[in-house]
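Could you help me review a protein record that somebody else here produced? Do not assume that whoever made the record got everything right. The record follows directly below this note.
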Amino acid sequence: MYSNILSVVLLAAYATATPIAEPAPRPGPSPQGLSSFPSAFSTGSKGLPVKTDFDTSGGSGPYPASIFTDPSLTKHTIYAPKTAVNGTKLPLIIWGNGLCAAAGAFFANFLTEIASHGFIVIANGAPGTLPTAAPTQSSSSGGLLDSLMTSISLLSQGMTTASWQGDSMKWVFGLNGGQTKWGQIDLEKIAAAGQSCGGIESYTVSLADPRIKHTVLFNSGYIDRSAVKNLKSIKSTVAYFLGDVTDVAFANGKQDFEQLPAEVPALLANADVGHLGGFFEKQGGVNGRIAVPYFKWILKGDEQSKKMFFSNPSPFAKDVTMTALQAAFKIIILDNFIVRPVPGGTTALCRTSDIHTLHQISTAS
């Protein structure tokens, strides 16, 4: 039971989605990172947070990254390479947190990993401070209280709406051609992404702003099923990364995928790690291992990353087990959508009886 308490609170946040008073701007950490933060979140059985050290590696990519703040964007946290990147533009990801929490460092390990591969990520909320994590199941005494206190600690920094991601867009487009001290942002390569409640925010901002070409939801989907009608208007590509049946958003995300317009390029990926599994491990765990190549594919046109999604057997499936935290992502293509276009329009996806693999069925010339 304890393993789902924080997950339920995360999902309930966007079921009610009423913003509370905005927090006063908080001082951000130094550009060197969050080494002063004693701990972050990791995950135990099926996504229950456990205490783990904050990942100070800077990510696995070629551009070691860190957390930054900017005095002209005080309600947000920026993840970017530590050293300015010259000679290539950096795609932009605007991020919404689980709980719709105004806590920009909530997903620090995961977002730092993404930024290290040459992205600028702007997360809702100033960095603030990370809360104490809940105990593992093996030490579950007090687990209910600790999980609730974790949620309260995060929400004490305030809650966000999709307008916060809209503020990120306004800030970026107010720069001189997207030029920042970390490098030049590619204003043609933008994705809105978020976890749980932040995924719903990403839907909203993508529907409102045609400059956003890709929408990526982690452990998310409409709770209010009447809102699914909004998907008829979506123009971006859409990807869902879910946490299997112990993920409280699994059914919602799966149903959203099923009801997307047939012409919308879409992907549904699933890992048996629950609602929060992987994000708070070093370099974002399994979530980082599949999100990085996905973003490199759709935002950078990286062919090697694209091949990872169309090879047979899939590299995401080779180590699949049903054990929490050891499971790699399994790609699921639903029966009702036997063929789907994908970004670039050159390859189609097909249903497979083996959900651990993704089969390439055709390649147009």
Summary: The CA atoms of residues 90 and 118 lie 6 Å apart. The mean pLDDT is 73. The chain has eight helices and 14 strands. The first strand starts at residue 40 and ends at 43.
